Amino acid sequence: MNRCILLIVLTLLPQCSLGHDVATNAKYAIVIHGGAGRISTDADHRTQRQKVLAHALSHGETLLKEGKSSLQVVEEVVRILEDAPEFNAGRGAVLNAAEQHELDASIMDGKTRACGGVAGVKTVRHPITLARHVMTDTRHVLLATDGAETFADQLGPENIQRVPNSWFTTDKARKNLREAQAVVPMPTEFCIGTVGCVALDLDGNIAAATSTGGLTNKKFGRIGDSPIIGAGTFADNRTCGVSCTGVGEDFIRNSIAFNVSAQMEYAGSSLNDSVQNLLNDKERRISGGIIAVSAAGEITMQFNTGGMSRAAADSTGRHEVHVAE
Amino acid sequence: MNRCILLIVLTLLPQCSLGHDVATNAKYAIVIHGGAGRISTDADHRTQRQKVLAHALSHGETLLKEGKSSLQVVEEVVRILEDAPEFNAGRGAVLNAAEQHELDASIMDGKTRACGGVAGVKTVRHPITLARHVMTDTRHVLLATDGAETFADQLGPENIQRVPNSWFTTDKARKNLREAQAVVPMPTEFCIGTVGCVALDLDGNIAAATSTGGLTNKKFGRIGDSPIIGAGTFADNRTCGVSCTGVGEDFIRNSIAFNVSAQMEYAGSSLNDSVQNLLNDKERRISGGIIAVSAAGEITMQFNTGGMSRAAADSTGRHEVHVAE
Predict the structure, then answer these.
(1) Which of A124, A222, A236, A237 is most worth mutating to test chain B (most B CB atoms within 10 A of its CB)?
(2) Cβ neighbours around B162 below 10 Å, total
(3) Least CB–CB distance from A221: residue in B144, B234, B284
(4) What's B307's DSSP letter?
């Protein structure tokens, strides 16, 4: 009898004591972007961006090492970036033509391909969390404007923190709007700062999330690629997870996030080539950046603009943060 | 001199007298859907659907024969269907959970991949026309709810005809809402009647358009696949044009309209196989129908529901209308 108990203890021991990653030889990977375009040369701004990205990356990596789900990781990382005024998402979001903030976000679970998005919300501190509730608590995948606000009302303050629209405003957003209103057509640098995160967890599940304030001086009611699954965000355990940043209209008309996955699925392209093909495509002419993680744990972060704030880490020991070039 | 004039006249003659199609040996093709699901067995309803589809098809075919652009054709055909109370688009649209109509539409030009969409509009008689104005008159591709209404205001009544929200209501929509509110989860048959059209014109240009009232009893602010380029509508002269109908959430999470084109572009699949693969995919499990036209003029119209109202015609003489199975 004693021998039997010992056998049971020995059988259970490895998975109890050695932890999730070692027991399964599993990989993790995380990649983050903070927008592509011409990054400000202001030293303080760059230092602050570097600091926030480094914090977000470390937080995400810690969760992944603990065996947390990629879904939880991408949501938490994006919440950190939404709270940072240096990025165009949540606090720090740009102003639209009506001098208001309209926030967009989406999230997707590569395991189930469940997904959720919100567009044009005005009083939700963390749009990515509302997007996750659309995914888990409704039969829909995209809720917009007043309807999304009503949904937030129903979820209550214990689930969704609300703020006045002016809470999102920064001096930089006001300055950018004044400059944008004086310039036609809109230059690319006015849309810098969308944030996104893609992660592969120790269970092999991929998730992706994107959040943005959209384009400075955008027409009221404009929806960009960020809240749209397949355009700004996509995740499928069979291929990859993707988050995009740039001129959203181009990303919608070319279904860019899904397009990366489609090249892997249908053409057998590598993750890296799939992203590169799109950024180099002379016909599609998209302008921006793409981050992605494959099911095998490869990371790519590419852009065809002046720069892209980005960060990456994985279970091989890679850990890097770049603010611009 | 006389001989010279005769030569010029003879040289010019074929293109003047024989018309656009014969001179270029060009093809045209048009396909229309009026929604997939369980089609009503009511004889009058079926007869009326048949009549409207036949009229829309003939109108579209006539325009194509005259050498009109596929973009004009898909817009005009969808306007006819938006005005017909037998379909869930424009007049005849379903009611949402708040007993209102929120209309979605999108249109795409396969030549330039320019596109436009509107979501959640409440007072626009022809949402497809507003979508076309988003495409041609803004730098955006998707405008939602109040912002889209404001845009319609700016375009003025000479461009965009407005109606009170109640103008869209039919007895059938009221009855469906009452039934839907008594049933959880929502059965597929409550989303019947989205309309769409895809056409290839004599110049080899493809266009696609989709318009819908969405799901009966949908949550306020819900955006389905119909206004989303890549999900409900897609067109690219290099591959095909596509319009979808069904449970929109599944079409968004699988970027179905673009997915058809992606299989042709990346896997070299035929138009027919690309559509069939998606409707048979055990993992994606989409429910609905897909119509498409390839750059070569092939037409496909497939569904995995009880039925789909559909019609097709092309320059080989094909001309057919089906209301259900």
Answers:
(1) A222
(2) 15
(3) B144
(4) E
B127 within 8 A of B232, measured Cβ to Cβ: no
Residues near A22 by beta carbon (within 8 Å), at least 6 away in sequence: none
In this complex, which of B108, B229, B262 lies closest to A259 when CB atoms are compared? B262
A206 pairs with which residues across the strands?
A200
Residues 6+ apart with CB under 8 A from A281: none
- Decide if A221 and B266 are in contact by the 8 Å CB cutoff: no
pLDDT band at A277; cut points 50, 70, 90: very high
- Residue-wise pLDDT for B100-149, tens only, equals 999 999 999 999 999 999 999 999 999 999 999 999 999 999 999 999 99
Contact residues on chain A for B222, CB-CB shorter than 8 A: 140, 142-144, 147
Single-letter amino acid code for the residue at A262 = A
Please, is B46 exposed, middle or buried when counting C-beta atoms within 10 Å of its C-beta (0-12, 13-18, 19+)? middle
Provide the token pair at B71.
Answer: 């973009």
Kindly report the three-state secondary structure assignment for every residue of A92-158: CCCCCCCCCCCEEEEEEECCCCEEEEEEEECCECCHHHHHHHHHHHCCCCEEEHHHHHHHHHHHCCC
Chain B residues whose CB is inside 8 A of the A151 CB are 219, 221
CA distance B325 to B322: 7
> Is B211's pLDDT higher than 80?
yes
State how far the Cα of A308 lies from the Cα of A289, in Å rounded to an integer: 7
Which tokens in the block code for residue B84? 């017909």
Does the distance separating the beta carbons of B255 and A140 come in below 8 Å? no
Architecture per CATH, domain A17-322, reads as: 4-Layer Sandwich (3.60)
Q: Which of residues 70-109 of A touch B (CB under 8 A)?
A: 108
Catalytic residue, candidates B169, B194, B233, B300? B194
- Strand order through the sheet with B114-121: B142-144, B114-121, B103-109, B206-212, B195-200, B29-37, B307-314, B319-322
| Residue B246, strand partner residues | B288
Strand pairing partners for A320? A312
C-alpha–C-alpha distance, residues A205 and A238, integer Å:
9
In one-letter notation, the amino acid at residue A207 is A
Distance between CA atoms of residues B138 and B116, nearest Å: 9
How many CA atoms lie less than 13 Å away from A252 in the CB half-sphere? Answer: 31
Q: Considering the entire predicted model, what is its pTM?
A: 0.91
Q: What is the DSSP string of B72-129?
A: HHHHHHHHHHHH-TTSSSSTTPPP-TTS---EEEEEEETTTTEEEEEEEESSBS-HHH
Domain boundaries, chain A: 17-322
The answer to whether the CB atoms of A253 and B219 lie below 8 A apart is: no
Distance of CA B245 to the CA centre of its chain: 9
Within a 13 Å sphere around the CA of B76, how many CA atoms are in the beta-carbon half? 18
Cβ pair A144:B119 closer than 8 A: yes
Q: Is the dihedral of CA A279, A200, A193, B251 positive or negative?
A: positive
pLDDT tier for residue B220 given thresholds of 50, 70 and 90: confident
Q: Which helix (H) or strand (E) holds A319?
A: strand A319-322
Neighbours of A37 (CB within 10 A): 27
What tokens appear for B256 in the block? 């179905």
Instruction: Specify whether the CB–CB gap between A30 and A199 falls below 8 A.
Output: yes
